[in-house]
Amino acid sequence: xxxxxxxxxxxxxxxxxxxxxxxxxxxxxxxxxxxxxxxxxxxxxxxxxxxxxxxxxxxxxxxxxxxxxxxxxxxxxxxxxxxxxxxxxxxxxxxxxxxxxxxxxxxxxxxxxxxxxxxxxxxxxxxxxxxxxxxxxxxxxxxxxxxxxxxxxxxxxxxxxxxxxxxxxxxxxxxxxxxxxxxxxxxxxxxxxxxxxxxxxxxxxxxxxxxxxxxxxxxxxxxxxxxxxxxxxxxxxxxxxxxxxxxxxxxxxxxxxxxxxxxxxxxxxxxxxxxxxxxxxxxxxxxxxxxxxxx
Amino acid sequence: xxxxxxxxxxxxxxxxxxxxxxxxxxxxxxxxxxxxxxxxxxxxxxxxxxxxxxxxxxxxxxxxxxxxxxxxxxxxxxxxxxxxxxxxxxxxxxxxxxxxxxxxxxxxxxxxxxxxxxxxxxxxxxxxxxxxxxxxxxxxxxxxxxxxxxxxxxxxxxxxxxxxxxxxxxxxxxxxxxxxxxxxxxxxxxxxxxxxxxxxxxxxxxxxxxxxxxxxxxxxxxxxxxxxxxxxxxxxxxxxxxxxxxxxxxxxxxxxxxxxxxxxxxxxxxxxxxxxxxxxxxxxxxxxxxxxxxxxxxxxxxxxxxxxxxxxxxxxxxxxxxxxxxxxxxxxxxxxxxxxxxxxxxxxxxxxxxxxx
Lengths: 295, 357
Fold this sequence. Notes:
The complex is a heterodimer.
Chain A lengths: L7 H9 L16 E8 L3 E8 L3 H8 L3 H5 L4 E7 L5 H18 L4 E7 L9 H16 L4 E5 L6 H13 L3 H14 L4 E6 L5 E6 L8 H18 L4 E7 L4 E8 L2 E7 L6 H24 L1
Parallel strand pairs in A: 3-4, 4-5
Antiparallel strand pairs in A: 1-2, 6-7, 6-10, 8-9, 9-10
Helix pairs in contact in A: 6-8, 7-9
Chain B lengths: L26 E6 L5 H9 L17 E4 L7 E4 L13 H5 L2 E9 L5 H17 L4 E7 L6 H21 L7 E5 L6 H11 L5 H15 L1 E8 L4 E5 L6 H21 L13 E6 L3 E7 L4 E8 H4 L2 H42 L7
Helix pairs in contact in B: 3-4, 6-9
C-alpha cells in the first residue's frame, strides 16, 4: 500500500513481471485492488494485493472493505514517496492502515519502503532517510516496522524484496544449513541461492567474506538485466561460468525453482569438478524442497 | 619512464610525447553542428556514461582531445559545434593532415540543411589536404523517428551530399552513412565499422577468425575491444545486430561480476585469462576468452559443437598465438621507429635545440 503515484505497481512489475525500469513509465494508475498470484519457489504462492493509492480508494479500504482487505495479512508493504510534499497526509493514511492491521491480523510483518531515493541528492540521502525512519518508528508504535530505502534504478529494490521474501519462506534455516554443507564439500567461497523467476536471494552460505555487503543484490540486478536481453534474442538464460585468474563463478539452475551461484577461489579446482558437484547436489536439494513444501 | 616502457601497449602516454607517436595512432575526428550530439556520443561509447545522463552535458567550448587507451590508440577530437574552423587562422593542414577518419554528426530530428552545407565544405576542405581520409556520416538521434522516415531521411541526405560533391568535381570521394542513436547499440555498431577501416591488420584478423570458425564449428566470432564494446573484427558471415547485442551485454555481465568477486586481484598480476561460458535455453552457447589486455574473443556456437570443448579451447589458443604474432610485427615496427625518434631527440638535446616544451 501507499499513496497514489508512489511506485507500488512499478516495483511489482520489475520484480515479478520482468519489466525494465524504463518501461514502468508507461504503467497507468492502479484501479481499486489488483490481485496477483505469484508462484514463488514453485509451490509457495504469494498473493500480492496491489492497492490503488488514490484517495477515494484509500477511504474505501478503511471503511467498507476493511475486513476484506486487512484480514489474513502476512506482510504489509507500505511505500512512501520520498519526494512527497504532503507528509502529514501520508502518515495519516499509514496510521489508519496500521490500526486496521492491528485489529484484523496482528501478527503481520510490516515493511516500509522509502521509495524513489534516486531523486534525492546523493549527499542528502542518509540524512533524509534517517529522519524518515525515526519518524516512522515513533509513529508506528506498538508495532515494529522494518524500513528500507529503495529505488527502481539500482539494486536497493532487490535488497528490500529479498528480505521481504526471506521472511516468508518456511524453514530457511534448514535450507541454509544444507547450503553450508554443500559449500564445505565443494570448497566454495560462497554459495548463493536465487529464486528462478525473480532472481531474488533466498539463502546464502559464505565461507570467505567478500566485503561487499551489497553483492547479492547487485548480482540479482545484473543477471536479471542479462536475462531480459537474452529474451530479446529469442533465447533464455540457462547457465554461466566466469573464470578469472583469481576466482571462478558458476551460475546454474539447481532445482526447478532455484538458481545457484557458486564462487570458488582456488584456481587449481577444475570447472568440471564444480559442475559435477552442482549436478549431484541438484538431486539432494530437489528432495529437500519436495519435503519442505509437502508439509 | 624509459622509452622502452611505452614501446609495448602500455596505455600511459605522456602528452608531451604525443608528437612522436602521432602517426602510429589513427586519429578519429568527431564533427558536426552544435547540439548534434557529439559529446554525448563520445561519453556513451568511450566513457560508459548512460544515455540518460548525457542530457546534463554542457555544450563543448573548446577542442576536446581525448586519447582512448584501448587496443588501438585512437584519438577522438571533439570539435565544438559553434567554432568556425575554416577561419584562416586555423591551420587546416594540422587538423586534417593526420586524420584517419572524419565522423560528421547530423541531427536527424533537426532541419539538417545547414548541417549538409557544413558537411560539404568540411569534406571539400579536408579532401584537399588529405585525400586518404575516410568520411563517415552519422545520421544521429534516429531513435525519435519512425522506421519509414529513417529510410527517407537517409536517402535524402545521401542523395543531396553525393550530388553536391559530384557538382564540385569530387565524384570519387566515398562517404559512408550510418543511422545512429545513443539509446541502442546502433552507435556502437557504426563505430565498429568506422574503426575497422582504420586497422591495417583487419584482413589478416578476419582471415584468422574465418579459419577459427571453419575448423571449430563456430557460428559467429567477434573480436571485441572490451573497454568500448566495439568489435574490431568479425568473421565473414553476415552480422546480425542481435548477436552483437547479446555479446556486448555479455561483456557487461562479466565485467560487473568480476568487479564484485575479482577485487582481490588488484594487487596480484593479472594474466589476461578471463574466460566465460554462457549457455542459453535455445541451444546457443556464448564463449568468451580474453585475448590480450584490451581484446576479447566472443564466439557463438551450438551446444552440440560445444561438447568438444577441449578442441575449441585448443583452437582458440592457436588463434591467440597467431594474433600475438600479428601484433608483434606492428610493435617491433613501432619500437624501431621510436628508437630512431629517441636517438634524434637525444641528439637535439645534446645540441641544445630541444627547448620548445
